[in-house]
Automatic annotation (TrEMBL):
This is 5-formyltetrahydrofolate cyclo-ligase. It comes from Fusibacter tunisiensis. The lineage of its organism: Bacteria, Bacillati, Bacillota, Clostridia, Eubacteriales. It catalyses: (6S)-5-formyl-5,6,7,8-tetrahydrofolate + ATP = (6R)-5,10-methenyltetrahydrofolate + ADP + phosphate. GO terms for molecular function: 5-formyltetrahydrofolate cyclo-ligase activity. Keywords: ATP-binding, Ligase, Magnesium, Metal-binding, Nucleotide-binding. Its cofactor is Mg(2+). NCBIfam families: MTHFS_bact. Belongs to the 5-formyltetrahydrofolate cyclo-ligase family. It comes from the Bacteria.
Length: 195
């Protein structure tokens, strides 16, 4: 299957999950993330804010703040095709973009360069058995991964129904090191011994 076909198929399955199922599966994913010892060793975590039928991340992000982590959340500038991360200390201060995505407010949230990131919690539409992912087509996370050390853990966060056997790859595609679903952690490639 081509990427667009996979994207359409998986989004259809994800969008068909009931709100109750999304909540229950998101809670299970949160519990799995809380049990990942290596997260507690990090200082600066790049996470994301869920949009539409994605895994719900508010509880995860609040937990990271409660652990006194530096929480970085993305802001996308589609006109310049860039994604930048800003430090957020209060999730209630997020603003809604023209696309309906909650994101940091650059007027009050400080920008952080990507080289400061210790761990990336990564969204996606689909993930395959080698850690390759399909996003929404903007290439933002591929460019982020290319700009940071290979040693920085990249952890996909998704529902199990978003797993597919194989995704066609291009030279610029960057895999995640592991995937957390409601079924637990699946390792693909270990960047550090602590993962």
């Amino acid at each position: 299957m081509e990427k667009n076909e996979i994207r359409k198929s998986v989004l259809g399955k994800r969008n068909n999950l009931s709100h109750e199922a999304q909540c229950l599966k998101s809670e299970a994913i949160f519990e799995s993330i809380k049990n990942l010892a290596f997260i507690k060793e990090t200082t600066c975590v790049a996470s994301f804010v869920n949009f539409k039928s994605e895994v719900q991340t508010d509880a995860i992000n609040q937990w990271l703040l409660d652990l006194n982590k530096i929480l970085l959340l993305p802001r996308i500038d589609p006109s310049r095709k860039i994604m930048q991360f800003y430090q957020v200390t209060d999730l209630n201060q997020l603003i809604v973009s023209p696309y309906g995505i909650r994101e940091p407010n650059p007027l009050i949230h400080p920008h952080h360069p990507s080289h400061a990131i210790d761990l990336v919690l990564t969204p996606g539409v689909a993930f395959d058995n080698s850690g390759y992912r399909i996003g929404y087509g903007g290439g933002y996370y591929d460019r982020l991964f290319a700009s940071i050390s290979e040693k920085v853990p990249r952890i996909g966060v998704a529902f199990a129904i978003q797993s597919v056997p194989n995704i066609p790859t291009d030279t610029y595609d960057q895999p995640v090191h592991a995937l957390v679903t409601e079924n637990g952690l699946k390792n693909f490639k270990t960047p550090t011994a602590s993962l």
